Amino acid sequence: MSQPLISKRQRIRYYAPTQAPINVADVDDLLLSKDHKGLVWISLVDPSAQEIAKVVKKWVGVERVVEEMQTLHRRPKVIEYEGASLIVAVTFSMDQGVVRFGESQLLFGQGFLITIWRNTQLTDETVQQHLEASPQLIARGADYIAAEILDTITDDYTEALLGFEKKVEKAETHFFVGRSQKKDIEQVYQLRRMLLRIQSSISPLSELSRRFARQNTPYIGEDSRAYFAEVADRIARQAELIGALRETLAFAFEGGMMIIQLQQNDITRKLAAWAAMIAIPTAVAGIYGMNFEHMPELSWRFGYPAALGTMAGICGVLYYRFKRMKWL
Description:
alpha+beta, disordered N terminus
């Protein structure tokens, strides 16, 4: 009995033109080749380098394709080969406040599709179930399925960005209610860094996807080209949303700093006003406390009440003026 081509964790489906989808343990079980009339869909989750080599060599047979798909990428890319195209899409998710990046690779050509998922909870199983419920979509070919998978990845981007949008709104609220602290400033900095990394990881995928809408490739149909263009527009809108979130954080930070500065100025004015009012009785009491023999009104019967009254009057006038100036 021959050894399976790949481990049990992976999936191989064969879609013949007139049959229901077939689960396959090994592509060789059906003696399939690139000339078959159906569609082979191979899904690999965190595969080993040996598994990738065995699968890819059978369908493309180009060593540099194998090397490319064995590499973990940090940015999206599209590479054209003879009779096949490779799409690399970066995925991301939040795990305890930390962004975890993964990737999805889609290698497709006439009659075959190979998907690789690394360091991500995303798989194409949901897409597979959806398409198998509508066989007419599978009949459109591997190119259409690749566009469908990209659309699913885009949906995951949207869901993850909603979480970031809530974090940005929360940070913005903290700044504008004047309760920002050091930890809030650190959080804004971390959020802006994460959003910049996400934006640089997904925004190039928009233009890369649009390339399929413009190319006249034999194994990419008209419906698929339109689908790729739609996905490209969605990714572009998400990149714009990330840019808007980053600008919102920047405005919130600047606005929060201005509010803090205004509050500090207000406190400074109040302290200056109270210091001025306290300075008057302090100065008068200090002068009369020198105990010189010859001082104004020193022997007057009403000198003490008069000094207190003068101090109170001057302080009252100052308080009134500062109040009108809104320093108090």
